[in-house]
Amino acid sequence: xxxxxxxxxxxxxxxxxxxxxxxxxxxxxxxxxxxxxxxxxxxxxxxxxxxxxxxxxxxxxxxxxxxxxxxxxxxxxxxxxxxxxxxxxxxxxxxxxxxxxxxxxxxxxxxxxxxxxxxxxxxxxxxxxxxxxxxxxxxxxxxxxxxxxxxxxxxxx
Length: 157
Fold this sequence. Notes:
Number of strands: 0
Largest sheet: none
Radius of gyration: 33 Å
Number of domains: 2
Strand content: under 5%
Helix content: 55-70%
Order of helices and strands: HHHHHHH
C-alpha cells in the first residue's frame, strides 16, 4: 500500500513538472514569452523534461519563445541547481595516494643534500671571488641526478 502511494505521488509530480515544461501551448503566443522565473523552472526540471522528450515531440528542454537574457540566466541557474553546478566535484574530491618506495626516498634525500651543498658552495664562492656560474651549477646538479637515477636503476636490476 505504501509503495503504491509513493509511485502515484511520484507520477503526479512528474506530470505536474511536465505540464510546465518548455514547448507547451502556454508559451505559444508572441505576447506571452517565457521570463526569468520560467527559465529557472525549466532549468530545475531539466532532467525530467529530458527524459520525457525522448518519448514525445511536444516537450522540449529549452523554450524558444523567451525574453532573452533573463530567461537564459534563469535557465542556467536552474540547471546548475538541478545538476550540481560543480559543487559536488569540489566537495567530493578524492585525495591522491602516492606510493613511495624506500629507494626513491633515499634517492630524494641524496639529491636534496647534493643540491644544498652545491648551492652553499656556489653562494660562498660568489661572495668571495665574484659571480658564480649558475648555469654550470645547474648542469652539474642535472648530471648528478641522472647518475643517481642510473645507480638506482642498476641496483634494482
